[in-house]
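Hi, here's the filled form for the chain we discussed.

Project: internal
Contact: R.S.
Residues: 1376
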Amino acid sequence: MSQPNVPNNTSANNNETQQLQDASTATLASNLQQFQVRRHRRSISQLMASMAEYPADDAYRPTHYAGYINRGYDGLDIDSSYLFAQYEAMTEARNGAALPPYAPDPHNGHQNYHIDANDVDDDDDDEVFKDCADDATTPEDTEVTMHHNRCLPEFQFSMVDSEYDETLAFPDSVTILSTLGDKPVLVERKETDDDEEDYDDENSVLMRQEIPFTSIYGPSVKFNSFQRKVFIPGREIHVRIVDTERSVTTHLLNPNLYTIELTHGTFKWTIKRRYKHFNSLHQQLSFFRTSLNIPFPSRAHKEKRTTLKAAASQMADESTLKDLPAHTKVKHSSTPTNNNNNNGCASGAAGTVATIMSPTHSSILSSFTPRRSQRKRKKKKRKLPRFPNRPESLITVEHLPVRIKQLEDYLYNLLNISLYRYHHETLNFVEVSNVSFVTGLGIKGKEGVILKRTGSTRPGQAGCNFFGCFQRNCCVRCNYFCSDVVCGTWRNRWFFVKETCFGYVRPTDGSIRAVILFDQGFDVSTGIYQTGMRKGLQVLTNSRHIVLKCWTRRKCKEWMQYLKNTAHTYARDFTCPNPHMSYAPMRANTQAVWYVDGAQYMAAVADGLEAATEEIYIADWWLSPEIYMKRPALDGDYWRLDKILLRKAMQGVKVFVLLYKEVEMALGINSYYSKSTLAKHENIKVMRHPDHARGGILLWAHHEKIVVIDQAYAFIGGIDLCYGRWDDRSHRLTDLGSISTASVSGSARCTPSGFFSKDEEDSAFGSRKSSRNAHHESSAKEQTLSPPPVKEEPTISGMELRALKPGDRLLIPELLSANSTELEIETTALEGMKLNTPEMERKNMLDRLKNNAMKGARIGKDFVQRLTTTEAQETTEDEENVAEKAADETVIPDATTEAEVAMSSTSNGMNATTSTQILSSEFYGQAKYWFGKDYSNFILKDWMNLNAPFVDIIDRTTTPRMPWHDVGICVVGASARDVARHFIQRWNAMKLEKLRDNVRFPYLMPKSYHQIRLNAHLQQLQQRRQQSVTCQLLRSVSAWSCGFIEADLVEQSIHDAYIETITKAQHYVYIENQFFITMQLGMGVPGNNVRNQIGETLFKRIVRAHKERKRFRVYVIMPLLPGFEGDVGGNTGIAVRAITHWNYASISRGRTAILTRLQEAGITAPENYISFHSLRNHSYLNNTPITELIYVHSKLLIADDRVVICGSANINDRSMIGKRDSEIAAIMMDEEYEDGRMNGKKYPSGIFAGRLRKYLFKEHLGLLDSEGSTRSDMNISDPVCDQFWHNTWRRISTRNTEIYDEVFKCIPTDFVKTFASLRKYQEEQPLSKTEPELAAKRATEIQGHLVNLPLEFLNKEVLTPPGTSKEGLIPTSVWT
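And the returned structure, exactly as it came back:
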């Protein structure tokens, strides 16, 4: 039976009340009466003594007041200045009217007195008390007197000792000195000491507003320790009982179930407790109180208690304020009582309905303004928690508001005393922990102690497994019995539920043992049929299955209801089905930015990493710690990836890195070296996955490329943070920098003192051990912004550099910063400087160099050109190429490209620091853009020996590098949270699988979607390029990659989004991808098991356009050759030919090829609808024309200038079907449009998709570098019309292909159809070798980078791997 906290006027209530009163009267009549008289006489004797000692005081004489309530502070010293402040404010609020306890008695005709602070604090007045018990010696008299006096039965003087338990009292002068152990150390506080806490007032400048998010990664503290600081410092905890459920039939002794609302700062939550829970808490705290070593009071403290007058004054004041509710007042909302017979008693006549109300915290603070406005802030006095002893079964319905008030005051006072507030029993009572009030986690949620069954944390072990010997095969219908009794062990866990996740903490050490995300597989159930227990709770997600047990069925239902409510409200986006069957919903009004090529992307990522304040998430297929994120490296190693992460880790930012653990026999990316290089600080955690031997995952990879900043900015796309990826729109083939033609690019650099290898180096700028800098070896701490000053000036005689002459170039010297002159400049070998130059002369020379550079910059560019070797990259911005500004604005113009300058070298190194930011000309043989292994051509030579990062793998004097074309994006806000959610799910799954008991690797928690804070600096950097889109995150994951329990559960939302976007496209589809392996399912070559339907969807869409006689274009850009090392025509090119076979089988060869099928469908000219292209570039090396293909690594789809899909997924089964490689992508639909054209008609072109498509067209057609020329007049706004499709796009591509074949005899080409013709073709000398000048002139006619994909290349050969080769033994699914 449930009733509100205030009774109604019903006969049932009256009968129940009468029965309870009769029962209490019958059982306690004799004892209570005798007890009352004894206590009454002792109290009267004390009062008489007081009156005899101070006969002049009459402030509290019975003639003035109708009654006085004794609170029972006999012999206790309570400083009531805190209470007087409330009393003063409440007196002023009544404008001088009499306060309720002192209302005059109309029958006696007493005068109405006004009591103010002066009256209360008068030292000359004495107090004479009138005890209510004097006029009531029998229960009947007591009942009559109760209506005539302001005296509640619960507070009668004769009942004071039995009514309240005050064992939690302790001297107010005691303060907490230390909490190093499980118990606090208490000391006596002097009068001048401030309180140990910062209180919640407007004058407190030390009050902290929030608990930082990174606190969840702090050291764990066991639950019974006093060191747990879970509350927000300086914030009070307010208590209000908002509802009461009464059931005397099922709970005879504790019939009332109180719903308590607690408020702490901005957090608000409710708990349900009975009186027995309050009593249990009080008993635990009482035991804790008696175990403390409380120091004796000081002399000053004893002097406060010298007179009975002071004690009586405090008693009177305490009783007065007790009757004036500070936090709860009773509002009468029905028939008022007669004031002539009742002076406002709370237990009024029947028919009075009371509603519990609570004033706001600000109104309470306003009463403290006069005192808190003093020059020195007063110490806040503790208020005594007084526990009501009267059993709950004796509390009638009429007295329920009084009991509510008692419990509210008790809990409020208890929670605002730090000694009890941080006790583990108190924290358990109010259901708070270290994750309750953390900023960023959202609402407090629900928490509490629960029992969890073991064996339910690992996939496949959710049920009975007979001590792990079987996988649920030993039991049939007795599964529950075996799980609970035989095989299961129940552990105490602290369970918590947040907005989009839940988990549990181990109380013994305070460590988080699980964080489980709400997903579409979430389900919660209770009952014996689901769990085998009446009080059991079963929680299911796609990744976890846990069984919990509660103490009562009511708690079990509460947990189940709260989990369901959270799943249907806060976590609705993840528990309900989403478009494309994705794990994340569509997010409207999302800010997004696109980046073309690695220069733009890596610079933006570097800015994001630098701005991080809390967390950094990185997931990569390959990560190279020594890559430079911004180039040219004007700031030395400042923008090197490992230095950035180390710098942020030292600043307190938590860095979490997930790397793909490769099969070392198949790949040489050396993830172990990357992990060991990065993990040099406790705040950097690196995890590799999968473990091939244990997991059995040998063929698939984690292919995502993710960088998340503070869960607010997320970078995804096709660009790994590794070697070979950095490139810009120029796609350079050479990078000689300051290298000398006489030097040797190899495993060592030649210096006058000999050779040194990687082991002697620290960076690409030559920081190495030598006799000159032996005393200044760099360490992790010294590589910060402020290097230590140089105390010594060692010199080496006989060594000096050439003087700087006109035409000579330093690598990239940068002007000294203004504040760098205040530091001791480390010895730096600059040109024109002797090593033994005195330090003052060297400083003067550096200053002169700086001044000359500044002067030269004002006069012209001549002197700047002598200081740099960077290429001229002057661009004129328009609405399409504004994206390149960030990448180009750091490049200094130079009149010469790829200049070779012979420079003297020295054996003296340099500590490249950002304080001086000077790069030495000593960097003999080094590059200006690509250092060491970053200069690569992986088709000719794959990466190896990655632990020597600054040693070249190819000879850059004879071999061009392979340019890299790629696309990435950045999403902001809720979509970034979705990317972080995917990372968190993967991290937690890997943690559970590999490092379950390793406390150094924490579980990650998703932030709230309702409290997204953006970084002001990053917003300023990205503001010009951000566009508003509707965004949805997509992915390809399965059990092995994401930790799903069910082996057959797969998410392939990227594939579904591709299918839907192509099907709904109206005008064109533009695709850039590394592969194009997609066929008609079940048809074609033997062994064909390609299952993705992207090619099939393109085929159907083109056929539909042909039948409707509408123009529809499909652009496909892909690399000329797959990215595998080997000669395509030799024995080493088996892998290259295997991928080439599957690409061509999908495009033009065999019955499953899309072009073949289109012709069979009646489309005689498929080129009118679909066209396949690649990218190539040319340059000069050693005065000889050279060429190389541009490796297309993008994973991009654009449709109708309105939709963009960008991510890490290739067009093949590995990326698309979900069970193989793990991938992530985003689909973005424009929300803002501008005028465009489509098929000759006006068309609203999306700003995000349209501008990205136009920028890519300009780059591929060579329009970005030809502003102002005749090429810039080319119209690219309409990608569908015949003029652009045939006369621009296809014509330029065909012309470029012909020139490349004529000048360079490129491979692959349509002229080579067999291996024999390939060898013959390669033996012929190209025009670039026989007539370089004519070849150079002919090459100037090449426009952009666009070429045709040679569809006839080796079409008469079988390109599948031989069965006897190791590639032939690998399953076909590896290639597809």
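Let me know if anything looks off before we file it.
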